[in-house]
Amino acid sequence: MNLDSELETWRREWQSEAAIAPDLRRQVERQSRWLRMGIAADILVTIVIGGGVLGLAVRSPQPDMLLLAAATWSFIAAAWAFRLTITRGLWSPAAIDTAAFIDLSIRRCRAQLKAMVFGAGLFLCEIVFCMGWIYRHSAQRGPLPAWLFGSISHWVIGLFSAVFFVFLARYRRKKRAELAWLIGLRG
Amino acid sequence: MGTDAAKVDIKLLATLDRASLEQEFDRLLAADGPALGRLAANFTNTPSDRDDLLQEIAMAVWQALRTFRGECSPRTFLFRIAHNRAIAYLSRSRARSSEAFGDVEVHDPAPDPESGLAREQTTERLHSAIHRLPLVYRQVIMLALEDMDYTEIGEVLGISESNVGARLSRARQLLRESLEKRK
């Protein structure tokens, strides 16, 4: 390569880097922070909840406690397997340009939409299992409907679940709008 | 490219009212916005620092605009201010973080998750290699890559054309070696 063509090549490469919109870059960085925080939260849940039930099962190795520990660890394993699958390829854009940043944002948005569906399903399974487990060990176990609606704490759990699902629905709507906007940006 | 910037009627700048001056300011920055973005990115390590530096450059250009008498092209004027602000920014960064610069190599910024894969890209490699050049060579090669000739580079940096030639030649040699090493 002669000197002038070398400089010309560098010039093309240098000028080809389109400036990434600061807002888009900030959004991607914010998403990365949330991804890292999500991993940290999962680690915390694994240690606190997983470790807690494991400790209980070791201290009193009754079949019911072992069942609780096994179910809890199944939920944790399912959550980890999903997280590791869904976050694959979501950490870096393929290049430092606007198109790659938009593409990464789209993939992250789609992953979040899938995660919401998975999260709702997992939450439902956990609630059903936990309520079933508590019902089985309840001292005043009567007919299921009476037991279910006869306690303040069950109403609190029901209210919390309703708020959780409303939040998910609203967040899903917001994410779908964001996805449509990003796809529009990509053209 | 900065050719649009030449359309600024330089003789009139000092006599313009504020609104018109703002228009000329916007036109000047818009014409060389991408080049200023590249310059700022190469003098900083994070997007927020880059935005800060761009903001400082814009403010400095605005303050100096009324005093511009057309001794050089608007583009040269713009880049001179940009480089001066960038060096002032580096000096402050050094004071804050003891980061070495000047004739000593500037450290390679730590790879963040966003740039991990992209470091393999040719363009990113070039930007990285330029970022690691000693300051005197970095300045001259960046201006050359923005299509400036020796005279313009000399005016921006306040050095003679022969000095520009010598620095550019050395800068190209260092850049070539750096790119070869990272292939």
Short description:
Chain A is mainly alpha-helical. Chain A has helices spanning about 5-15, 20-60, 65-85, 100-135, 145-150, 150-185. Chain B has helices spanning about 20-30, 35-45, 45-65, 75-95, 120-130, 135-145, 150-155, 160-180.
Strand content of chain A: under 5%
The interface involving the most residues is between:
A-B, 25 and 29 residues
Quickly name the level 1 CATH class of chain B. Answer: Mainly Alpha
CATH homology group of chain B: PhyR, sigma-like (SL) domain
Any low-confidence stretches of chain B, pLDDT <50, length ≥5? 1-8, 98-120
Query: Helicity range of the residues of chain B?
Result: 55-70%
Number of domains of chain B: 1
| Count of strand segments of chain B | 0
Q: How many DSSP H or I helices of chain A?
A: 6
Q: How much of the sequence of chain B is in beta strands?
A: under 5%
Secondary-structure-based class of chain B equals: mainly alpha
State the CATH architecture of chain B: Up-down Bundle
Mean pLDDT over the residues of chain B: 76
CATH topology of chain B: Butyryl-CoA Dehydrogenase, subunit A, domain 3
